## 1
Amino acid sequence: MKRLALLRNLIRQNASTFISMLLLVVVPVVISSTLAYVLYDHQALLQGLNWWQMGLYFLIVSVTMALALTPTTFVALASGFYLSWSGFPGIVVSYGVAALVGYSLAKLIDHGKMMSFLNRFENARNLMQELRAESWSLIFLTRISPVLPFALMNFVLSLLQVDRKKFFLASILGMLPRTFFFFWIGTQASDILILLQKPETGSGGKLLLILLVIISVGGLYFVFDRALKKALRKASTKNAENI
């Protein structure tokens, strides 16, 4: 009963946070499907952009990725198709900017409520502290995975209150392998609609994606396991000192 009451309090006090996280998962799927048809019907829209138009494009996709309006994979594929390799540096920077925007928005929505709730419990507080100490690895491993939603991870990592500079740099580095891969696929495609609906990654590409998922899951398990053991050890030491 006590655990159920705690769960109810957690949900009630952080309702806006949980709703926002749900939307960050659902919205990209819906909007990207619509955009695929829009780009197919207006294929000249992003062709032959000059430098300021390309800069505006990068600014727009930074915002749309941060708001979960466009998935990062979608942006990498479309950018590779339309911009070729001249647009790759801009996309890498756009991912970093989108991460920072998402981080800031999550802070505005949550107002530290989630962490305040968790800090009531010593073990949870110790675990959060240990995870923050592992923030570089934690961020990198969440970004390298091609299956973890970008905008949702912005939100979750913001709730953990990781360092902003580490968040920016580790996000860019973690995103690089899959960004490069999907951007390259975009440069090789001949039809934007087929590309965005079902990108052909080939057997080698599928193995690469599986490898990235394994690295991400295995690494995150190791980080969480080590952080949890340290948190429990800290609590045991404190209890022993109080006896």
## 2
Amino acid sequence: MPGEISTAGMRSGHSSQPAMRASHADRDRVVDLLSVAAGEGRLTSEELDQRLEAALSARTVGELAELTTDLPPMPVFAGGVAAEAKDVLRIEQSFSPVERVGRWVVPRRLELCVQWCEVTLDFTQAAITHDTLQLDVNMQGKNLTLVVGPGIVVDTDGLSLVFGKLKDHQAPDPDAPIALRVELVGQKSFGRVVVRQPRRTAGRWLLRRPAALPPGD
């Protein structure tokens, strides 16, 4: 199928010419695949950083293919990633942190059954294929952090807090269309639920600083 990523992470036909020079588009496709794999828990943060660095410096398609041979294929179409969302994704975990960051695919329903785990769900670069996510929470201890961007709204009305706190730092734009509504239901005991915007980089902080006044003013 045209445009389909093979298990090597390259477009069909490229894998037979490993010495061919890689293009910027080839590198971008592999970066997307690695980000999705990390969001699904297939790569650790350290592995992701190592492979991203190698992908961005790769000179040939063969070098890129080596970075994705142990990952499942992902279809790519013009204009970005097209990945099929799961109807239900269930996460059961204890003590180890749970992260969904980067280019991960948002399911239709996410069942979060964890104990004493820090959980971070970052929607700012996620692949959103529908307008509503039901987030079923059965969580004890630690914090649940939801990172949102423009067009992403979190509804916490259906969530019960037991010895827990909610810190909602959403700043929705009333004129922006809603791309995703995250509906929290269930129970969170102990710890906090934090809804926040992405952290500003150093460059953004510098842009916010007022310009220095000239001497004598």
